[in-house]
Amino acid sequence: MLKPFIRLFSFFSKEISEVRRQPRLIMSLLLGPFIILLLFGIGYQGNIPKFRVALVLPKDASALPPEMINNLKQAIQTNFVLVSADANQEEALRKLHNGEADIVEIFPSDINAVIQRVPQGQQSPVEFRYAEVNPLNESWVRYLGYAQVTEVNKQILIQIIAQAQKQSNAFPNVSPQAIVSPLAAKYENIRGQSLSFVQFYAPSVVALILQHIALTLGALAIVRERLRGTMELFRVAPISINTILLGKYMAYVFFVGILTALLVVVLVLMRTPFLGNPFYFAALALLVIIASVGYGFLISVVSQSDSQAVQFSMLVLLLSIIFGGFFLPLENFWLPVRVISYALPLTHGIIGFREIMLQGTLPDQSTWISLGIITVVPFILVWFLANRQLQRA
Amino acid sequence: MTQPRAAQPFITMSEVTHEFTKDVGVYDLSFSIPAGVIFGLIGPSGCGKTTTVRLLTGVLKPQRGTINVLGDAPHKFHTRTRERIGYMPQQFVLYPNLTVIENMNFVASLYGIGWLGRRKAIPPLLDFVELRDARHRLSSKLSGGMQRRLELAGSLVNNPTILFADEPTAGIDPVLRAKVWEQFRRLRDQGRTLFVTTQYVGEAAYCDYVGVMHAGRLIHMDTPEGLRKRAMGGDVIVLDVDQAHALDVAQILLRQSIVQDVSRSRSKPGEMYVYVDDAATQLPMLLDIVRENSQATVQKAEEFNPPFDDVFVRLMEQAGESNAETVH
């Protein structure tokens, strides 16, 4: 009666012993992504890119009040690094071509003409010339340019209103700033304060490491048996594919589960918040691990060699980082492409772990159901393919 | 082809064919093996020995013909039948990252042997294959011969009724090979059946029955003695006479109806090999003939058992000739 259990645990203990004997593999799987992402967390500033700007002032700028020129420079320096500010457009463009500046900002050459166009309801352009290939940076240039022109317009208005107040003596006690900007933004984070990047990305790192280790171990599990010829031994021995798969699932889930627990302890020691229920976290982690091991097994049954299995695992890692919601929000993807995201255990791991750890809430039903589906489907496929391989061992 | 005596057959193959590609596979294999014997399958590399073992263990399903092992068709073996079978594949298939004892525990667990049973069964087996001292060594650190020994121990851990061993002595030194065969004989004496393939043709002498394969076909199946006779065309008597009369004696013997052939040794001028039907009855008759018809002094006269290497070569040559005749 105990025989089925003895057989099941034969795989469990064998797998644990084998994994235990490969500390370098585990360390590289565990520490590799962990260190990279820790460095990212520490090193990534998350700030707006600092563009170097060569400012081209109007030729008759000397006619403008120095205070206005100073305000303009200050407005520019809020978001840009000012490398030069003069009326020499050619020199500024030379800097742009030579890579000494990222943007050339050209103000209308005739400042009086600007003033004259206002009563006619016409605007004068402030030109931003740049040589940018990064679409994200271009968006930033346009956004910051817009913000800056708005700020300059505001400064001009403040100057004009101040002058008008002096001349007409109207609203003498009202500040020109309040007249130009009657509304001011006020911010309050009801959760207290936002997290550091390391803290914010910690649940995602846990999910990524967990998926990567489980998937890689699974990916090597069956292909190695096949290449070694052990499947032939299994074919003759009194065991079924169920015993082989369940034994391996148990071993990997147990092993990766322990690693996850250790990882979470380390993160909590690093002051990463853990606001939610540990039971739900464990349940979610269990599902993510089983699903990841399942994907690993699937890779393993279709791979012809160890190296092919590792290559497939790396491909899934890449796919996960791009489509799993690690850096890029899922909403940014075209809906049909999001199917890839939702087929990845990582996606649900990130969503669920963030909610449980950082917000103290429970992931919604769709997370659990999706994880359930991607746990069961690979298992069925693996069972079918591995059984066929065992019969043909 | 002589079939083993008809006790209850444990293994039966009837007109079994399994072809991988054209002319590569095994063809029309038919034989029965009773319980409690050592059956040795010999043949050159690539002749189909391993395929035959795989068919018998259910790893391969025959494309034609029927196989019966312990009352079951191997590809449909019940769990209980599998528990009675020991299998030693040709390659080392155990785990290099596990120690000797861990590998043994794993194989034993596959057969449902619990902790207590393993504690009882494994140490004597490790003693037998002389790996007890290396029990905590990783398998990757074992020599090729030690790995074969470990695999052999693994195939015996379930105390099988039938052991299928595919080249169990490959890579093992001669002393241990002799021990392995001694253990096989002990297992046979306990009533177990052993199906062993080997490339060491001399090991055929240790078997109760020997099958000779050639190009995917079983060309002979007999006792080792029977095969010897078949290869040599009868029994061989080695006769050593004084050198001066050796030629005379050879000519006299060649004239006798009971003598099929006489060949003289090149290395020893007085020595000759006399081919007869039955050495036991015809040796005294030959001695009388020599004594009556020549002055020669007989220094040695005894039945000669040619080494199995020679027997095998002869059988292969005969098979080659037979094939050539078939083609013509």
Detailed description of the structure:
The complex is a heterodimer of chains A (393) and B (328). With 393 residues, chain A is mainly alpha-helical. Chain A is built from 15 helices and four strands. Chain A starts with a helix and ends with a helix. The model of chain A has no long low-confidence stretch (mean pLDDT 88). Chain B is of the alpha/beta class and 328 residues long. A six-stranded mixed beta sheet of chain B has the order 5-6-7-3-8-9, sandwiched between helices. In chain B, strands 11-12-10-13 form a four-stranded antiparallel beta sheet. A three-stranded antiparallel beta sheet of chain B has the order 2-1-4, covered by helices on one side. In chain B, a hairpin with a 6-residue loop joins strand 11 (259-264) and strand 12. In chain B, helix 3 runs parallel beside helix 5 (144-156) and helix 4 (115-128) crosses helix 5. Chain B is elongated and about 75 Å long. At the A-B interface, helix 1 and helix 9 of A face helix 2 and helix 3 of B.
Short account of what is shown:
The complex is a heterodimer of chains A (393) and B (328). With 393 residues, chain A is mostly helical. Chain A is built from 15 helices and four strands.
Judged by helices, strands and strand pairing, the structural class of chain A is: mainly alpha
Taking pLDDT < 50 over at least 5 consecutive residues as the criterion, the unreliable ranges of chain B are none
Query: What is the CA-atom radius of gyration of chain A, in angstroms?
Result: 31 Å
Mean pLDDT of chain B: 88
Largest interface: A-B, 25 and 29 residues
Features:
heterodimer; A: 393 residues; mainly alpha; four-stranded mixed sheet; 15 helices; elongated; B: 328 residues; alpha/beta; six-stranded mixed sheet; 10 helices
Compile the SSE list and pairings.
The complex is a heterodimer of chains A (about 400) and B (about 325).
Chain A lengths: L2 H18 L2 H21 L7 E6 L9 H14 E7 L2 H10 L4 E4 L4 H7 L9 E4 L4 H34 L7 H5 L16 H32 L1 H7 L4 H29 L8 H25 L3 H18 L14 H6 L1 H15 L5 H27 L2
Parallel strand pairs in A: 1-2, 1-3
Antiparallel strand pairs in A: 3-4
Helix pairs in contact in A: 1-10, 2-8, 3-6, 8-10, 8-11, 8-12, 8-14, 10-11, 11-12, 11-14, 11-15, 14-15
Chain B lengths: L8 E13 L2 E11 L3 E5 L6 H9 L6 E6 L9 H5 L1 E4 L11 H11 L4 H14 L15 H13 L5 E5 L7 H16 L3 E6 L10 E6 L2 E6 L1 H9 L2 E7 L4 H9 L4 E6 L6 E6 L2 H15 L4 E7 L3 H20 L1
Helix pairs in contact in B: 3-5, 4-5, 7-10
